Each structure stands twice: as structure tokens, then as C-alpha cells.
């Protein structure tokens, strides 16, 4: 697959290198030619100096034959403009825009543009591992109807069959369980153990019930 990457900072350069290592062809656009030094002398892709939403630069990057575009510059407005040009002008289906303001994510996703808010995602995951009572939400659909959440099993729920959650709580589906760093799909016989991490798809009205289910036992830590 041919991929156009706009922005050759730490994220863009890493993305471009990993894509070429995986066998894809890559064209990288950045307005600063010195940014391409991050790619190293052995980079096999194409580098183009210019503005990412410039039609001529995108054409030079092979946008007409691209299967995907990632806009990972350091500006939200630039990233969303580039993403919209890729979707609306060139018909690229796989478009991802990096954003720094996660409040904009739902707006962009309604336009059919996937977003990655790196800082917010990283901060939330670090916080969740420091302060254990912070509920983990991995993903929320643009309408906020369904969430993918992460919950840790406390001793109050240990010993229960994992899939009993689905039969006893409407609007909840168990997606996977991670135990001692090894993930597995749920089976009817799988019993939850203290310290397990469970990933669940949950409707909005079921979140409160889920929080009550996984609430720590009184006197627990």
C-alpha cells in the first residue's frame, strides 16, 4: 500500500520508517527540509518539501494512488484541513489526523476522519496506572453510545465466571481479558481472578452499573 505522511516530526518520521520496514511505499511531506534528517540516510521513501494541504504537493506525493494518509503535523487546524482535502478531494478512505485538543475528536469523527490525541491518551493511561480508582475508557464512538472500557478485577468480583457479566447486565459485552500480561478471549469457563484486566464494550446507560460491579470491596486497597 502507498501511504502519504504529512509531518516529519518524531511521530511522522517513526510512522514513515515503520511503514517502509513493513513493505509499504511512503511519501513524506514537510515544510521544513531539515525535518527529513530524522528519517536517516537509508530511508527508501519519497520526501517532499511543502505545505501538506497544497494540492500540487499531494499529487507529487502520489495521493491519487494512495491507500491511506496520516496528517501528524504540530497543528490541529492544519491536520484537519489536510485530512479533509484527502477525504473530500481525493477520496482517500483511510485518513487519520493527529490532534492536541481531544475535545475536537467527536467533531472530526463525524466527518469520517479518525483522530489520535497522543498527549491525552498517554496521560490517561499513565494516570490510570498511578491512581487505580480512575476509570479507564479506551474509546468512545462519536455519538457517545458505545464505549470500550478497561476495568481491573478486585477481590469482590474474583471467582465469578467472566461471561456472567453479559447475562446479568444488559448492554455489556466482554471483549478480552489480560492476566499477568497475557491476553485471551473469554470462554464460558473462564473465571476472573484478582488483578485481571478486563476489556468490555459498554452502552452509555450501562456504565454506572459496570462501575458498581467492579467497585473495590470495602476495606480493600
Structure write-up:
There is one protein chain. The longest helix has 13 residues, at 76-88. 28% of the residues lie in helices and 26% in strands. The protein starts with a strand and ends in an 8-residue tail after the last helix. By secondary structure, the protein is an alpha/beta fold. It is elongated and about 60 Å long. The model is unreliable at 129-134 (pLDDT under 50). It has 2 domains: 2-120, 3-Layer(aba) Sandwich (Rossmann fold); 136-213, Alpha-Beta Plaits (2-Layer Sandwich). It is built from 7 helices and 11 strands. Strand 4, helix 3 and strand 5 (94-98) form a beta-alpha-beta unit. The protein has helices at 10-21, 55-60, 76-88, 105-110, 118-130, 164-168, 207-213; strands at 2-6, 25-30, 46-49, 68-71, 94-98, 114-116, 136-140, 146-152, 172-179, 182-184, 197-203. The strands form 2 sheets. A 6-stranded parallel β-sheet has the order 3-2-1-4-5-6, with helices on both faces.
